[in-house]
Write a structure and sequence with these properties.
Length: 466
């Protein structure tokens, strides 16, 4: 039950029978949205569907493409490829479920509002905390990737902690642009820089006689397998890492809220997920085929020092833009939560700017601290997926569907079957949350015990550990 004394978000609801195709465009207009249109206020709803697609691409592409090749080594080429395709389908469908839920409840701004409609204030606080933690984890992963890039380009001219701190400052400054429209023009450039840098590595590894990290002379074991034989812990960690590479569904809700025409979301989503998952599959399989167990994580270091420097030099913009987007999403959620239903939300006041900058730089500082505490790239990615995005992207979307279609459990056999599939989808999200978190934490403990990870705020570069 909702407390009568609590100030709740204004979330308009429509009958569950109304599907996305039946929602009148007028119902998605000014009166129901969090961000209003009008004179003398900041207009946040300025994003077209192509720019929305570019934002969604950059949200997911920055970190996933750097991590999946090492996951294929754990799982094997065939199971790894199936994992990429399977998670791509499920992540896309769950994003559609979130979009449809917003269209049936147009007052929704972000994933916390979805949780509030379904389960009230307690579920909202839990999902909000997970979303914020997830964004901070993504910023931390980006800090690790950026510090690795600066170490490669400078030949470790400065302490890794210094490179992380410098990255954090520029990430915070970039994320402080208030509107997605302002950041949107950077996303295509960021995606292009990441795509080109990975493509260079893909071409370079095919030209080597042996992997750059393999012994320079004599026989060696490539470590390439059609099917891997991982332990439960390593398999869960690898699968979780692949899943989270495309688990942007809870973040896309905020993008929809700043679109000029929200019903164009599906076009933006399908274009986004086709591009990134085709890239994931092609790039990762080629890098793994030529590098085997000698693949680096992040993967840009897989073709030797010279190509590593070239690739990281080109990828710097993409790494920064990805981190900026993650931070912007987390900060915007907190910002709207603090100032919702207040005139300061869309007014250029001192309160408006003070809250906004506190959100961006405060979360960025937390990301920096986390990056120094767990400086192994693939472990950070896996932990992000299991703790945060498994409940947000796997468990919550089917629950949102069940909330609006609970009557399916008493309908025809087909309707009961559909209802059961959504229940199973929720249970899968629960399993990934528990199993993925347990597995990744075990690997982190083992890494500390074996010396793979040094002390916190160490100047050592641990990013290529696996």
């Amino acid at each position: 039950m909702k407390s009568s004394s609590e100030k709740v978000p204004e979330i308009t609801e429509y009958p569950p029978s109304e599907g996305v195709g039946e929602v009148d465009e007028i119902k998605l207009g000014n009166e129901h949205e969090v961000f209003k249109k009008g004179e003398d206020i900041v207009d946040f709803r300025t994003v077209g569907w192509l720019r929305a697609s570019s934002i969604c691409i950059k949200i997911q592409f920055a970190l996933g493409v750097l991590n999946i090749p090492s996951c294929l080594y754990t799982l094997g080429a065939f199971p790894g490829a199936l994992c990429v395709v399977g998670w791509a389908f499920l992540n896309t469908y769950n994003a559609v479920l979130f979009g449809d839920f917003k269209f049936r409840h147009p007052g929704i701004y972000d994933v916390t509002d979805v949780a509030y409609v379904i389960g009230g204030p307690i579920l909202r606080e839990v999902m909000g905390a997970l979303f914020m933690i997830g964004c901070v984890f993504c910023v931390a992963s980006s800090c690790v990737g950026l510090s690795t890039a600066f170490n490669a380009l400078s030949h470790h001219a400065a302490c890794t902690v210094w490179w992380s701190f410098l990255s954090m400052f520029f990430i915070g400054a970039g994320a402080s642009m208030r509107k997605f429209h302002s950041i949107g023009w950077l996303t295509w450039a960021g995606f292009a820089s990441m795509f080109v840098s990975v493509f260079i590595v893909v071409v370079a590894v095919t030209q080597l006689d042996r992997p750059a990290a393999a012994p320079p002379t004599g026989p060696y074991d490539l470590g390439w397998n059609w099917i891997g034989y991982p332990t439960f812990i390593s398999a869960m960690t690898a699968s979780t890492s692949i899943f989270v590479s495309g688990a942007g569904a809870p973040m896309f809700l905020q993008v929809i809220s700043e679109m000029r025409k929200p019903t164009d979301f599906r076009k933006a989503l399908y274009l986004c997920n086709f591009i990134i998952n085709a890239s994931y599959l092609a790039f990762s399989l080629v890098i793994y085929r030529w590098c085997g167990k000698w693949v680096a994580s992040p993967s840009l270091g897989s073709a030797g020092q010279t190509i590593k420097m070239v690739a990281y030099g080109i990828a710097l913009l993409g790494l920064f833009v990805g981190a900026i987007l993650y931070l912007h999403l987390g900060a915007k959620m907190l910002f709207v939560r603090v100032l919702r239903n207040s005139r300061h939300l869309q007014a250029n006041t001192v309160v408006h700017w003070s809250v906004w900058l506190s959100c961006t730089f405060g979360l960025c500082a937390l990301g920096f601290i986390l990056a120094e505490a767990i400086p192994i790239f693939n472990y950070l990615i896996a932990l992000t997926g299991s703790i945060c995005f498994a409940p947000l992207s796997l468990a919550l979307p089917p629950v949102a569907w069940l909330y609006d279609h609970w009557d399916y459990r008493k309908g025809s056999l087909l309707r009961k079957g559909i209802w059961s599939m959504f229940v199973l989808s929720f249970l899968l999200g629960t399993f990934m949350t528990v199993g993925g978190t347990y597995s990744t934490v075990e690997l982190i403990i083992e890494a500390y015990a074996s010396g793979q990870i040094g002390s916190a705020f160490s100047c050592a570069d641990n990013s290529n550990s696996s």
